[in-house]
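Hey L., structure's done. Input below.
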Amino acid sequence: MFNSTKRNQEKIDEIRMAPELLRIDAQYARGEGALKLFLLLLVALLFVYHEGLIGMLKEKTTQQQIVLVGMILLFMTALVFTLYMMKRRKGKTLVMTEKGLFMETSFALFWRDINEYGWNFSSAMNNFLFSGQKRGASLLLVKNKGVWPKMYDLAPHGIFFTPQQMQQVDDLFRRLGIKKAEG
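Output:
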């Protein structure tokens, strides 16, 4: 893993040396503050009512206790994981240069490695995390090196393009000879 991270950093450094064409900051779901407040409130309630909860659990059978504790742990894990993903996405930036594109420490791709691209207007990640918010399209990149093609969707990284940015990327890919995926 360290070796691939080092190789990835070398690619990023090489791509960074070329003139920059486009820079897009990651977007993240709003509501992180509300989620933190909810978690804090939940922990406070557990702290205040812990004796009542323990007493209620003691009245249940062992199987019911296991199920209830499991459900509580699963719920708390989902909340903490959501916070972690929001925090991880904050401050990330996609940079496109004349040589390729990269997102610091996440990935780096040279233009010569990309065979196809497409726009994802309603990814499941976009609809799930950003419900109620109008977001642009995410970029799908297809890399046909090796036995199986690899597809990269930038939506999980919080990268969404405005119509103007999409036009810039379309023009860039047309100039580089990267074909647009049909459908």
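Residues 62-89 form the longest helix (28 residues). The chain has six helices and eight strands.

-- N.
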